[in-house]
Write a structure and sequence with these properties.
The chain has 994 residues and is an alpha+beta fold. Among the domains are: 111 residues, glycosyl hydrolase (family 31) (Immunoglobulin-like); 134 residues, Jelly Rolls; 121 residues, Galactose-binding domain-like (Jelly Rolls, Sandwich). 13% of the residues lie in helices and 33% in strands. It is built from 12 helices and 64 strands. The longest helix is centred in the last third of the chain and has 18 residues. Belongs to the glycosyl hydrolase 31 family. It comes from Lentzea waywayandensis.
Length: 994
């Protein structure tokens, strides 16, 4: 949609039990003192540490299932280490060594050694960076200068938002907790003293006041005294129900009476044999942690080291004194001194030359042989006085593997143009070196109840994935553990029409649908945007009877035409709304003022407010709801559950599915919410069709969406991803075909250039959801010139014909976790080209390769890599051999789409107006002559197996047994022939009829 402007106790003893021998249990569980490991699959092991030995067996909001098939494994204790080994993964834990951290737990998988757990404990006198701690509902931001580390914890804008740090008091007695914060004008429009609750070890928090600072760039400190015993404690800063929040917190420190605020940051170790992130080390001097250049590992990199800069990593577990390879991953572009030349860094005093890289987004590695003593020591990178002028990403200690993310996700792509920098993505499940830790420590229980507080006792709960290059296995493990992506109703995979423009029931009935039918364009879903509301078109809660005189009649009409409909919702209510008094009464007076003018917002964690919110929907009949998050401030104070995930689950209970943004919340990071919350990516896919927000109508955006869809799918398991086909925001100013009133002024809609429109619809035809949408912009074929109209009409009909195939692949995604749109490396992990082409081509299911053209002109071309096998052009019949490259050109009437030999593409045999009224007509199957393969066609309540053995097809009965089948047999010479069949089961010869 679009955006509106918004102003945006205490003593506890840590009791550590004596280590006990590891014990293997018949249910795939190995317990070693306070550590427990559950072997769920060869590539998935749960690692749980409970200082109080109270292990958690209930499901969580992330983890809805731990019932896996029995996995063969071995476990043993030798030399003080517990070793658990499966066929794919080895986990080692030092018995009795306490909570998991870098130096006491390691994994090995597919030749990679890693330390999945990072635990930062801030000793007395050490700087405790907010971004290194457990966070609840707050994100890390870096848009205000003066913060240290990677940034600061931003907002504390909602109840229960907070951070919890683990500290270690060096002695018993009185200590000071000092907080570095900024307090400017908040999202509520106020600039005043704020409060948070400071708690120790889970006891009742005390309220602390954080006085106003000059602005958000002005950082100050506030101090409070606590009495602590010697040892570890948990210190939390949380916005309670009586606190005002709305502050930024950079760091905190536990200090004695005479200690100054520290500059030395607490870190975890870098284990020998692993590759460690430079941003997790101790950085001193002018260098900063940054994220603005793509391609880095971890959460960032140390940016442009200069004279006086120092980066230190504490290296542990060096087996013996000796000289070992140390691998630096770096970028060396044009430095701040204007030079682009080889640079020198000093590694433990040894000069190392780093050759130039093409630019700052190009990363390289350099290896040096460095003497290290046995055990623990420091490895330090320093700069000559002239400066290093390089960026450092990782430091590998006797290790060269890089923990580089494959794909990533974000809450939305609002404002993306394709020319304003790549959107920063949050890594998810898949990495090139084949492992991941899903940290479930802070997730609530499955019913939304927060986990019990454990006081000072440490607790960790995480799932170690060790999959190597078996990426599909990892996605399968994730699906079994956290649930699969929701299978939408079949009609949802058809064609959607949406536009942010004032429409009426008569418009849809008398103009829009007849135009679809007249021009032979299919339609399955009508999206009614926000202007349908009475009172306030933004957040009103009744349908405007002057526009929709009979709301139920409108929905009944849509159903009668084979359509489904959705209504747009913004989650707040005006104080002047006719339904406000009832809603406030249902909420028992708890609705609070929001940041928008005279509006009230909902805390969906509160049952009364959730009931009030959901009841507002009852007067507006629809099939499902479009929750268009923006600017209003509703959310959820529920701990351990992302607000998006929570409310989207509620929407699924009152509609077919949730149609919304996902993964985080509006409160946690602005409109687009670029940062993650711990439960977001794992719970969201179970309920949600992810709407990716308001992009712009540019060639760059068109190209950028190619890689994003598959990137989100592989990183989270989300399969249902919906872009604004054509982009939302106009960039061309071309006059469109309609007029509308804007503050009394008559304005025209806008349109894209014909070539951009044609190419965008082509891409949309092969995306998970084909949803035409814009901000007062033309998106319908007949609103463009003859060639563009013909192209768009052809591809929208093709999309409708492909619904049986797409629905079948979507059902596979629900079961396997492998997304509908996927990068080639899921199917061909051993091919380097499968990784280098993720931004230019993708697979729709396992067998259809799509390489959209994203450049202007009547004829466009793109460079295509063909994976192993044989590939046939769907439109031209031309055959390409695998493991080759080709430049493929196409006019607007076709696009580069290819079918793998052995694969099958099932489509309707004729164009239809919609899916609902045409559920089981004749089907056409595209196959390659002489190949072997199989496809299962899924239809609600039944499956049809289609098996090819060379020149023979076997049809095994599904739900529909009486059906006309047509097989298009593609030959190696580019020709094809058609074979007809009727009904199933059947055996069909694919030889050309004589």
């Amino acid at each position: 949609m679009r955006k509106r402007t918004t102003i945006v106790p205490l003593l506890a003893l840590l009791s550590l039990a004596l280590p006990t021998p590891a014990t293997a249990q018949p249910n795939g569980t190995v317990t070693s003192g306070q550590a427990r490991f559950q072997i769920l699959s060869p590539t998935l092991i749960r690692s749980e540490f409970a200082g109080d030995r109270r292990f958690e067996d209930q499901g969580t909001y992330n983890v809805v299932n731990r019932t896996f098939p029995r996995t063969a494994y071995s476990s043993r204790v030798a030399d003080g280490w517990l070793t658990i080994t499966t066929s794919a993964l080895t986990v080692r834990y030092r018995v009795g060594s306490g909570p998991f951290r870098a130096d006491n737990l390691e994994i090995k998988t597919a030749g990679t050694t890693a330390s999945p757990w990072r635990r930062v404990v801030c000793a007395t006198g050490q700087l405790c960076e907010a971004e290194d701690q457990h966070r609840e509902g707050v994100l890390v931001a870096a848009d205000h200068p003066g913060s240290t580390g990677a940034g600061f914890a931003a907002g504390f804008s909602y109840t229960n938002n907070g951070i919890t740090a683990t500290v270690r008091a060096s002695s018993a007695g009185r200590h000071r907790v000092v907080v570095k914060y900024a307090n400017g004008r908040g999202g509520d429009g106020k600039h005043e003293n704020r409060t948070l609750g400071l708690g120790v070890d889970g006891q009742a928090p005390r309220q602390i006041t954080l006085p106003a600072t000059a602005d958000w760039n002005a950082w100050q400190q506030v101090s409070t005294d606590v009495d602590l015993s010697a040892g570890e404690h948990r210190i939390s800063l949380t916005r309670g129900a009586a606190d005002s929040g709305n502050v930024n917190v950079d760091s905190l420190a536990l200090l004695t009476a005479d200690q100054a605020y520290p500059s030395v940051r607490a870190i975890d170790d870098c284990r020998f044999g692993t590759s460690c992130e430079a941003e997790n080390g101790v950085v001193t001097g002018a260098a900063k942690i940054a994220v603005e250049h793509a391609g880095f590992a971890g959460t960032g990199f140390v940016a442009e080291l200069v004279g006086g800069t120092r980066l230190s990593q504490r290296v542990t577990s060096v087996p013996a004194a000796g000289t070992y390879p140390v691998v630096l991953r770096y970028a060396n572009g044009v430095g701040g001194d204007g030079r682009h030349e080889p640079r020198t860094v000093l590694l433990n005093g040894q000069a190392i030359t780093l050759p130039v890289t093409a630019n700052w987004a190009t990363w390289a590695t350099a290896t040096a042989q460095i003497p290290l003593p046995a055990g623990t020591s420091d490895l330090t990178v320093t700069c000559p006085d002239s400066g290093c002028h390089v960026n450092l990403d990782t430091i590998g200690i006797n290790a060269s593997a890089q923990h580089l993310a494959l794909g990533g996700y974000r809450r939305s792509l609002d404002g993306y143009t394709g020319t304003n920098g790549d959107p920063q993505l949050t890594p998810g499940l898949l990495y090139r070196d084949g492992w991941y830790l899903l940290d479930d420590t802070t997730s609530a229980l499955r019913n939304g109840t927060p986990r019990a507080d454990r006081g000072a006792q440490p607790y960790q709960d995480g799932y170690v994935f060790g999959y190597g290059q078996n990426y599909k296995t990892a996605l399968g493990d994730l699906t079994a553990l956290t649930g699969g992506p929701k299978l939408l109703p079949r009609w949802a995979y058809g064609v959607w029409y949406s536009e942010y423009i004032d429409r009426t029931a008569a418009d849809y009935r008398d103009r829009i649908l007849p135009a679809f039918r007249q021009h032979g364009v299919p339609l399955d879903v009508l999206v009614v945007d926000t202007d349908f509301k009475a009172g306030n078109t933004w957040n009103g809660w009744q349908m405007d009877r002057s526009k929709f005189p009979d709301p139920q009649g409108f929905l009944d009409w849509a159903h009668g035409e084979g359509l489904h409909s959705t209504l747009n919702i913004h989650p707040s209510i005006q104080g002047s709304d006719p339904d406000f008094a009832r809603a406030q009464a249902t909420a028992k007076g708890k609705l609070a003022k929001g940041s928008c003018t005279d509006c009230y917002v909902f805390d969906w964690a509160d049952p009364d407010q959730l009931r009030a919110y959901l009841e507002l929907h009852r007067s507006m009949p629809t099939d499902f709801w479009w929750l268009d998050w923006c600017c209003d401030g509703s959310g959820s104070s529920l701990r351990g559950v992302a607000p998006d995930s929570w409310i989207n689950e509620q929407y699924t209970k009152i509609g077919s599915f949730a149609f919304s943004r996902g993964f985080g919340s509006l409160q946690a990071g602005g409109y687009s919410g670029s940062g993650p919350l711990p439960t977001g990516p794992w719970a969201e896919k179970r309920t949600t069709l992810h709407f990716t927000g308001d992009t712009s109508s540019t060639w760059g955006t068109l190209k950028g969406t190619i890689g994003y869809t598959s990137a989100e799918g592989v990183s989270t398991g989300m399969s249902n991803i919906s872009h604004d086909i054509g982009g939302h925001n106009d960039t061309t100013g071309l006059r469109g075909s309609e007029t509308y009133l804007d503050n009394g002024q008559v304005r025209y809609t806008t349109k894209m250039p014909d070539d951009m429109y044609a190419r965008w619809v082509q891409l949309g035809a092969f995306q998970p959801i084909t949803r035409l949408h814009s901000n007062h912009g033309d998106r319908l074929p007949w609103q463009y010139g003859p060639a563009a109209q013909a192209s768009a009409t052809k591809f929208l009909n093709l999309r409708e014909r492909l619904v049986p195939y797409i629905y079948s692949v979507a059902e596979q995604a629900q079961r396997t976790g492998v997304p509908l749109v996927r990068p080639a490396y899921l199917e061909y992990p051993g091919s380097p080209e499968a990784y280098s082409t993720v931004d230019s081509q993708f697979l729709l299911g396992p067998d259809v390769l799509v390489a959209p053209i994203t450049t202007p002109g009547d004829v466009g071309e793109t460079r295509v890599w063909f994976p192993p096998g044989q590939w046939t052009d769907y439109f031209t019949g031309k055959v390409y051999q695998g493991n080759t490259w080709a430049t493929v050109s196409a006019g607007w009437d076709i696009m580069p789409v290819f079918l793998r030999a052995g694969g099958m593409l099932v489509e309707r045999s004729a164009d239809v107006a919609n899916d609902v009224q045409n559920p089981s007509g004749p089907l056409t199957v595209h196959v390659t002559a002489g190949a072997k393969g199989e496809f299962t066609l899924y239809e609600d309540g039944g499956r049809t197996r289609i098996i090819q053995h060379g020149d023979t097809i076997v049809l095994l009965s599904g739900k529909v047994t009486k059906r006309d089948w047509k097989f298009v047999v593609h030959k190696a010479d580019g020709s094809s022939h058609v074979v007809q069949a009727r009904n199933s089961p059947a055996v069909v010869s694919l030889r050309a009829p004589r």
